[in-house]
Amino acid sequence: MVLYYSSTGNSYHVAREISRRRPGRIIDMAKAEDNESYVLPDGETLFMVTFNCFWGVSKFVSDFFRLHRFSNVKKIVAVITCGGYLGAGDYHLNRILKAVNLPKAEVYELVMVTNYIVIHEVPDADSQKRLLSEAEIRLQRILDDKEKPCRSSPVARIFGRAVHSLYSIFRRTKPFTASAACIGCGKCAKDCPVGAIELTGGRPVWQKNICDHCLRCLHNCPVSAINYGRATLGKSRYGYPEQGES
160: closest CA among 82, 84, 93, 78? Predict the structure, then answer.
């Protein structure tokens, strides 16, 4: 079984590749039924793919494991995509799993193209191609058991708590805006995994004070009308080349 949570297609692509190598159910966590139960066949590994979120995982992922039941889970392998450094993401995820009595996960960092343009810039096309090619090689090595899982240092774990504490600040939706370029298509409202956006008078309105800060709305807007304060103005958007509609 492969669970995935993706904002701009990196994690979705990884999940598809895992499913190709390890046949089984592939589940988009953002579309799962509330309180759904998952029973793994004997001997099957639970794979989980998501993106790095302030040296951890997002609130949505944390809540997913808290709100859904899992049975017959003997082994968990997590692949966390990131733009450069996982930090203490392995430690953060395993604290969540421990709290719901699930086994400790083998966590692997997979550097791909960053989409966190609140701070960074999307790399140029040549750099993207190189990063994704290198990620593909590493992913296959992970699936061939040729890579060692991450094990964050005690120092990284201490700093990780501080870094992840910033997440609660950036989850605030007040900085989100939609420019005059907005065409009122409603894609942002439809795609939001936590239902934070409503279309009012043909314009997106962030009707919740906080969201998951996945930036799916910002990157997937067909006319790049959505911004997060001034930090993202004029910056390139990103979507994995095979993203499609997922």
Answer: 93
Cα–Cα dist 2/22, whole Å: 9
The domain 2-167 is placed in CATH, from the list 2.50.20, 1.10.287, 1.10.10, 3.40.50, at 3.40.50
143: left (phi over 0), alpha (psi -120 to 50) or beta: alpha
Read off the pLDDT of residues 141-150 as tens digits, 9 standing for 90 and up: 999 999 999 9
| Domain 172-228 listed as CATH 3.40.50.1260 | no
What pLDDT, on the 0 to 100 scale, is given for residue 245?
A: 40
pTM, rounded to two decimals:
0.95
Contact 87, 156 (CB under 8 A): yes
Q: Which residues pair with 111 in a beta bridge?
A: 82
Q: Which two tokens stand for residue 173?
A: 């939706």
Closest listed residue to residue 47, CA positions, set 70, 22, 20: 22
DSSP letter at 231?
Answer: T
